[in-house]
Amino acid sequence: MRGTLSRMLWLEGFEVILAATGSRALELLGTAFFDLVLLDVHMPDVDGFTVLSKIRERPESFTLPVIMLTGADDRDSVLRSKQLGISDYLVKPYRVTDLLSRIDRCLDNAPKLLSCA
């Protein structure tokens, strides 16, 4: 899924860096600047809630746009994400146009460097 999403975003002109696990996403976020992060609630080793929480703890990434792109459509997951400071929440399966619209809204004409975890 990450590979397909990455290729689709690349074709739209985005530079994409992939992280296969939550811990890898946190590692990348500590060493590079990103304009936006796409997270899933369900990731190996460190879940999306924890990654989002860690992002919001860092002063340099407190306002970093984060979109939760996940199959978790239950009310608790949505509420928890909002409490942790998610920028947007999109449930799989999703339409590509919906994702691109949400990305554009979050970036608001900023450069296009994304992290997909």
UniProtKB/TrEMBL annotation:
Q: Does the keyword 4Fe-4S apply?
A: no
Task: Indicate the segments forming the Response regulatory domain, all copies.
Answer: 1-107
**SUPFAM superfamilies (UniProt xref):** CheY-like (SSF52172)
Keywords of the record: Phosphoprotein
Q: Modified residue 4-aspartylphosphate is at which positions?
A: 40
The record, for PROSITE patterns, names: RESPONSE_REGULATORY
Instruction: Report the superkingdom from the record.
Output: Bacteria
The answer to keyword DNA repair applying to this record is no
**Which Pfam family name is an example for this entry?**
Response_reg
- Name of the protein described by the UniProt record: Response regulator
Question: What is the originating organism of this protein?
Answer: Dechloromonas hankyongensis
